Amino acid sequence: MTFRFAVELPHLLAAIAPVAGHPTVLSPAPVWAVPTLYMIGTLDPLVPLAGGKVDTPWGKKIYKPPVTESLRRWRVLLGCPAEPAWVQEVEGVMMEHFGPGRNGSCLETWMIAGLGHHWPGGKGGLKTSIAGPPSDRVVATESIWQFFKQFSLP
Which of the residues 6, 28, 110, 139 has an alpha carbon 20 to 30 A from that of 89? Predict the structure, then answer.
């Protein structure tokens, strides 16, 4: 829903920070390219990095595309360059920054080692058999706020 909101109402957003999702609404390109911080765990069984068939908690099997392909399409919509401006690994978190894009936007991706389908740094209330392991390697709420503070509304 975060990506869709950024496409349909970008003038209301300074930035977005989806966690473990896919940008399924990929056209038209948003009128205003919204800076994006994207986080996902490397052990997320519900949104696997490589894509593939996923067993949902509701007993269905669905196909998920590779996360890198979805993020590539989002990067293109933002008008960011194909190569990252910088790449950094800090304590098991692989970070890439693509930008600048249209109107100064960017896409920053964080792949968090050892994290399943949980809020990074959260309590991990979902069963590990469904969602994989929690992790406190990143405190998403604080990191997202630091990212958001760099931007202002269009």
Answer: 6
**Structure token pair of residue 137:** 């390697």
* Residue 6 falls inside a structural domain: yes
Q: What is the pLDDT of residues 20-58, one digit of tens each?
A: 988 876 667 788 999 999 999 999 999 999 999 998 888
Is 47 inside any structural domain? yes
Q: Does 123 fall in a domain?
A: yes
Which has the closest alpha carbon to 35: 89, 95, 102, 83? Answer: 102
> How many folded domains does the chain comprise?
1
pLDDT tens per residue, range 61-87 = 999 999 999 999 999 999 999 999 999
Q: pLDDT tier at 104 (50, 70, 90 boundaries)? A: very high
Helices (H) and strands (E) in the chain, counts: 4, 6
d(CA 99, CA 79): 8
Asked if residue 113 is part of any domain, the answer here is yes
* Nearest CA-CA partner of 95 in 25, 146, 34: 146
How is the chain split among helix, strand and coil, in percent rounded to 5?
Answer: 25, 20, 55
Q: Which domain holds residue 29?
A: 2-148
